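explain this chain.
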Amino acid sequence: MENSSIVILDFGGQYTQLIARRIREQRVFSVVLPCTATPAEIRAHRPAGLILSGGPSSVYEPEAPAADPALLAMDLPILGICYGLQFIVHHLGGKVRPAPRREYGRAEVAVTAEGAGGPLFAGMPSTFTAWMSHGDEALELPPGFQRIAGTPQAVAAISDPSRAIWAVQFHPEVRHTDLGSQLLGNFLFSICRARPDWTPEHFIQTTVSRIAAQVGDGRAICALSGGVDSSVAAVLVARAIGDRLTCVFVNNGVLRKNEFLQVQRNLRDRLGLRLAGVDAGRRFLTRLGGVVDPEAKRKIIGNEFIAVFEEEARRIAAESPGGGVDWLVQGTLYPDVIESTSVKGPSQTIKSHHNVGGLPEKMNLKLIEPLRDLFKDEVRRIGRDLGMPEEILERQPFPGPGLAVRILGEVTQERVTLLQEADEIVVQEVKAAGLYRKIWQSFAVLLPVKSVGVMGDQRTYAYTCAIRAVHSDDGMTADWADLPGPLLRKISSRIVNEIHGINRVVYDITSKPPGTIEWE
């Protein structure tokens, strides 16, 4: 991976993570850094090239992202995308202005004679459809730059090969741009000379070696949930340090029905992991008492998890000769980091994940997060190369805060029990319909809303349950799943007939964006 990664500087664009994904699809490792990263921080990743992302700002405004123009003189091939093009033009002596006519959606791009002879558009047709999303335009190009493509409305691409800088006004990372992956491939391989060596096998080898060196002769515990992410992280770390890893599975009181015992059996029998189960359900529910704010719930759960893990670390150290436990392994993924912290320059935090934004400021344990730069589909590929069973790898994502973020309002034992029963019915029926592995997530949500119903000629006044099912590739975006009517009818009938306390079922047809997958 040395000198073959691509660094993407994020100016707050909605498609930034798509750039990273499209690059990884071509077996080149990519990492997203905030646009405020210094040249030294960029070079620390030993990149073969640099990409400047899109963004919602105007480069000529005082509140424009405070990126260092010195990054344009780093002697690295650079590709600017949308705002990235405008940043290049503005800081190298050109002029950017509000466009007389903004471009949003599909546009016809025509490659100039200069562009047709250059490496960025090599092998591409002279005209193609691209996806535009900009309100500003490059009015005057900096000295040394040439226009290599345009639309009827604006400059579409520019270059200065002497400085190894190229830029496009459109978005090659979105599927709406014809041959966008080919354009990115031209930048990666013809211009940056990147090596397509980022494979699951390569990731496993380098990660295992790095963890072995990081931990040395020490010990670690793994925060195990039974899901894909933490299970893959545990297997990776176990491969690096063997039985000096103890996995800790905590009952936080908001797990699925019977999950505390089922997950322990599954992970011991199928993965051979050294596992300790901690039943702390009453402790978590006590801390959550009276709390209704979703961010507060996540932070309480995150803090309490760490407290339990630190207690277990002390217990394991006392019972095991050869030193204490210094490391905590977590299955943190890239979407967790993106949504929990402002790693994207001017972007806003969407929500705190219990294992990222929900962590306390001071911890006695040092973190190991081997999957921190990966998306969910990439983690599954890693798991398959590790030889893990499909039963674990194909498990639908389940939030770390568990049912606490699917119970809107206060979390009580009564509400947990109601949701556990409803959730069990959803999982059973989705599996029976043969849809479990075809859907990203399918689950029930308990709403803090009671409504009047009629059951057995008697009036009822009970809770409302929402059903949520979505399709997604990585959790960053999602479309609601159009579940068959007979399946929804059966789920609804079972919930209201079998669960005393719920008398109404609704179906959520909101995509992400504008919603999120979880309700809290």
About this structure: The chain has three domains: 5-191, 200-393, 412-507. The domain at 5-191 is CATH 3.40.50.880 (Rossmann fold). Confidence is low (pLDDT under 50) at residues 341-359. The longest strand covers residues 95-111.
